[in-house]
Amino acid sequence: MSTSDVTRQGLRGVRPGREARPGRPARRRGRRGEQAMVPPAEFTSYYGKPVINSPVWHSPDIPGYFFLGGLAGASSLLGAGAQASGRPDLARAAKAGALGAISLSMAGLTHDLGRPARFLNMLRVIKATSPMSVGSWILAGYVPAAGVAAASALTGRASRLGAAATAAAALLGPALATYTAVLISDTAVPAWHDGYREMPFVFAGSAAAAAGGLGLLAAPAGRNAPARNLALLGAAAEAAAFERMTRRMGMVAEPYHAGRAGAYVRASQVLALLGGAGALLGRRNRTVAALSGAALLGASAAIRWGGFHAGLASAADPKYTVVPQRERRDSSRPAVAEAN
Amino acid sequence: MADPAAASGYHDPPPRMGFFTDTSVCIGCKACEVACKEWNAVPDDGLAFTGMSYDNTVGLGADTWRHVAFIEQRRPVPAGADRDGKEGEAEDGLRWLMASDVCKHCTNAACLDVCPTGALFRTEFGTVVVQEDICNGCGYCIPACPYGVIDQRKGDGRAWKCTLCYDRLGAGMTPACAQACPTESIQFGPLDELRQRAAARLDQLHGEGAAEARLYGEDPGDGVGGDGAFFLLLDEPEVYGLPPDPVVTTRDLPSMWRHAAAAATGLMAAAAAAFAAEWLGRRG
Amino acid sequence: MQADGKAWLFAPAGLVDGPLPVHYEPQESPFRNPLYGQQRNPVRQVTGFSHPGNRLQPSGGEPGADVFPYVATTYRLTEHHTAGGMSRWLPYLAELQPEFFCEVSPELAAERDLEYLGWATIVTARAAIEARVLVTERMVTLTVGGRRLHQVGLPYHWGGNGLSPGDSANDLIGLSLDPNVHIQEDKAFACDIRPGRRPRGPARLDLVQEYQRRAGITGQTGMEV
Could you tell me if B224 and B248 are in contact, meaning their C-beta atoms sit under 8 angstroms apart? Predict the structure, then answer.
């Protein structure tokens, strides 16, 4: 309320409560003048609402695609190598697995669109700035190649065409397995974008582990050493890359270790350990090999779901957007931060 | 400032058009929200009491293209002189910030960059618009936007956002929100002219002692190359729900592709090694 | 405004309660008139509206005045139009202020245990209505006569129909009319506020009557000149 005296000299003693104008405040919240390099303990948001919009992609469609796409791409490599080194059983398993995985993927991708009937609009343009556009074209080449390769391997017909298709699928396979890492990193989602350097290695490693796991599971025990080798290399690479990624991200890595995402990540790590150990130690035993293969497949799937949910969690909480950006802004303009 | 229309291939485009939203004169009437919805036939965004001061709209999305934010703050304000003419100490006053948020129509627009169908495009006015007959609802633009603007419409599947009234611009008219704003908080015009006006207004406010007034999105050197719709704010951006230092994700994309290429090469090498090891093992 | 197109401070004719403006307390006030012995406007129109549905509350130091210890006021929101019948049906307006709410200060919320975003029941001798609770520092607790006085803010745009139905603030108001323009006092009246939703059906009337009993309200309360 305002109380004031009207005098000949004008208004006296006006309490400015009702006419509060922006003025130089006596103090500001979260002062960090002397601590320009220390992250602010508190941060401001608009009623705790997220700053960015969460991805509208659904589970199981999209994390399922990351898993199956990686599996398919790496399986094509395995299949090509198996064919070249005279392991028809492994080659058939890998090629069939690749086709099955990519077919399921296509169903999931189409289903997840807001307008599935307009799926082919993905081929209207080729845009290098859009990982999804690049990926659509990779798929446009890969899917027929994987189909022909698998068909030829399973029917035993058209072996020359099959060989060419196998080679094509093997060449596109690594691109298929890694472009999805670029796809999720190329967003404003903190837990995805901030990991962009290591994310392709996490995806590639996971894909390799999954393909190796499928080989262990589906191919007869005697000649599945390459599958085992690929699985172990992949699992190791994935673990190393994931560790480096989450360390580098600082507070933004929190969602990977908390809540639903954290549960998936931990499950992935346990399954990878079990699968890797089983693959290494139980190499003579068909059952152990198969179980290891299944565990490795499960580990690869689990890390995709974990990463997916970590992204969603980091988008939903404004602190993962505001705090790193505020730090970055204040550290690049410390004089301004202090003056305020 | 870069001319995104010319950079997109338009020959001799008209001057870049945009918004300058001066939130220091916003009265929180929400005429902008209503005018926008009426002109663009945007559906209502749900009837839910939020208790976020007078903001029941919450934020920008597929069904809200102008969003008025309300923030109540307890601020020290300088007291007037007392009877003896001595300056009073700062007291606690209350201020109510109001601000109309909108799509920023960034110079480097992440939504535009990541759209795989070409639905999102740059208009001759330098604005960014979604073609709703092409959008297949892939949803990629949604998490790409650093400001959380564009979103998917429920029940429709496509992505929707402010068009800067592209249809009105084409007819030489003013966008609906700017037309409706009773205080000219929302100013529309050529971006260069708006930037001059904004600089003058900022000087004026600073001269009056409003040290916290700042421009947001005006700087062509910022992470998105400057916004086609920029603001004058009276506090930090995050107070209004805006990112303090937005960067277009595309900036890091070349590096991302390089890392992916390295990983893909590594995968190929790992596959080769997996076979070679076994081959070597058998040979040895 | 008088015949010469100007407003007069001293109006010898044309005003039932002229010639000079003086201060009277509203029909229902927690305080005695500090300026005069005459509590309220002596020529207000009130006796003609005596009705069981329009009981008035004791004021000032009268016994029972403390049953309604807070003052309420009604006001408009920008988003709705007059009584709301024209704006509650329009999605674009209804969504801007979708529910009837009351505004209370943090101190009043603490005193009456009102939960932010919860429900409150506001009661006068006429009616009991319910509203969502918006706790805000914009509602100032006044200090009047050395006493802390809380206000309850009530937007008046709601009614039982439309996309955004809600209780009507006008239900609380008693008919005590200005003698010149015959408008009721809907900007200043006394009330009580309590947490939770109001009773439904006959229990709602029981609640109002319970308040009337506690305040000792009869057909004569508030009718004196």
Answer: yes
In a domain, C19, yes or no: no
What is the C-alpha separation between A25 and B92, in angstroms, rounded?
10
* Cβ-contact B227, B145 below 8 angstroms: no
Task: Provide the ipTM.
Answer: 0.93
Domain hosting C187: range is 52-214
Put simply, whether C75 touches B (Cβ < 8 Å) is: no
Q: Chains meeting C at 3+ CB pairs closer than 8 A?
A: B
Nearest-CA distance A154 → chain B (Å): 22
Provide the number of CB pairs (under 8 Å) joining chain B to chain C: 53
Beta carbons of A188 and B249 less than 8 Å apart:
yes
- A76: Cα within 13 Å, side-chain hemisphere: 36
Q: Is the pLDDT of residue C164 over 80?
A: yes
Residue C3 lies in a domain: no
Q: Do the domain assignments include residue C188?
A: yes
Domain extents for chain B? Answer: 4-251, 252-284
Is residue C156 included in any domain, yes or no?
yes
Instruction: Tell me the pLDDT tens digit for each residue of A96-132.
Output: 999 999 999 999 999 999 999 999 999 999 999 999 9
SS3 readout for chain C: CCCCCCCCCCCCCCCCCCCCCCCCCCCCCCCCCCCCCCCCCCCCECHHHCCHHHCCCCCCCCCCHHHCCEEEEEECCCCCCCCCCCCCCCHHHHCCCCCCEEEECHHHHHHCCCCCCCEEEEECCCCEEEEEEEECCCCCCEEECCEEECEEEEECCCCCCCCCCCCCHHHHCCCCECCCCCCECCCCEEEEEEECCCCCCHHHHHHHHHHHHHCCCCCCCCCCC
Q: How confident is the model at residue C90 (pLDDT cuts 50, 70, 90)?
A: very high
Domains and CATH numbers, chain A: 61-315 (1.20.1630.10)
Which CATH number goes with the domain that contains C91?
A: 2.40.40.20
**Tens digits of per-residue pLDDT, C8-55?**
888 888 888 888 888 999 999 999 999 999 999 999 999 888 999 999
| pLDDT reported for residue B146 | 98
Question: In the structure, what pLDDT confidence band is assigned to residue A12 with cuts at 50, 70 and 90?
Answer: very low
Collapsing DSSP to helix, strand or coil, A116 comes out as helix
How many domains does the structure of chain C reveal?
1
Backbone angles phi, psi at C157, to 5 degrees: -90, 5
Out of A43, A45, A124, the one facing B118 most closely (by C-beta) is: A124
Nearest Cα to Cα of residue B217 among B106, B66, B68: B106
Residue B151: DSSP 8-state: E
- CA torsion sign, B235 to B241 to B242 to B246? positive
pLDDT at B80 over 70: no
- The reply to whether residue B34 touches residue C136, judged by beta carbons under 8 angstroms, is no
| Secondary structure, 3-state, A256-319 | HHCHHHHHHHHHHHHHHHHHHHHHHHCCCCHHHHHHHHHHHHHHHHHHHHHHHHHHHHHHHCCH
pTM of the full predicted structure? 0.90
CATH of the domain spanning B4-251: 3.30.70.20
Amino acid of residue A263: A
Residue with token string 């492994």: A90
Chain B residues with CB under 8 Å of A204 CB are 263-264, 266-267, 270
Nearest CA to C60 out of C45, C43, C46, C40 is that of C40
Q: Which of B81, B77, B71, B149 is nearest to B109 (CA)?
A: B149
Reduced to 3 states (helix: H, G, I; strand: E, B; else coil), residue A236 is: helix
